[in-house]
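The records we work with from here on pair a chain with its fold. A complete example follows; check for yourself that the lines match position by position.
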Amino acid sequence: MHVNRGNPAGQEVLVDSWPEFKMVLTRPRREVARDPSDYFTNLYTAFYRDEGACRALLGNSHAVDWGQAFQIQGLQDGVYETVRDIARARGLEMETYPYRPLLHPDPPAMPQYRPDKGLSLAPVSPAHAMLLNDTWKFGGNSWSLRYLSLLIRHFPNACLLAPEGTPISWCLTDPLAALTHFYTLPEHRGQHHTRPVVGMLAAQLHARGFPVYTGVLPNNEPSLHTLQRLGFRILPGVFYLLVVRPGFAQSQPASALDSAQDPAPSSGERPHTHST
């Protein structure tokens, strides 16, 4: 994660005990999790060595704000089962997204493909946030626009630009340094545009010392096939993304859209989705 690299997502880290701990939880800092309906910003991650410690910490209302909408991510079945059980007991809604985790074992060996003539590789511009929001499976609302704007401004990304400067293929990374929202406009598919984009972004991540990994939903065979051709390997297990909602009305205040351009929180303020 980026907690020790400026902490642009404003996370903080909790453990069940110190110095010997059995459970690690990251969560948004209090001053960042201001919108109780914004499950993009209200991001938790969990890892445990003892399932009992996992249940105890996740069930502690001082550790997890169950009165807010939030998402929690984890690679262990116990995280899913614990969050499911607590959500049921509290009468909360929970959406489950079980991703297949993929990792590239040797990023420097990934083929670097040149863009087709007339196309150019570049970072994603904040001016393109609306386009990315409109094309994302989890997008289309002001919370997702604010989240994507934060990713574009503060985390590695890459896109392929048409001659007029419009992105036709792109890929971002999230606060966990995972590849997310790699997408090619429908009219440009079938031309392997994803390959130079992912190659450029993988080189950036490797140079910064990050692993090159992502998650793909089980029914997304095109993305899975593309990544495997680039050398990614499917890892065992499931990467869970769980969205918990306390039943808030889904109406959004007018000010939420305006805040998509607000400055991102600093390391004094707080440490997704992952999603493709």
In short: The longest strand covers residues 93-103. Residues 248-276 have pLDDT under 50 and may be disordered. Helices lie at 51-58, 77-90, 129-135, 142-154, 194-207, 221-229, 254-258.
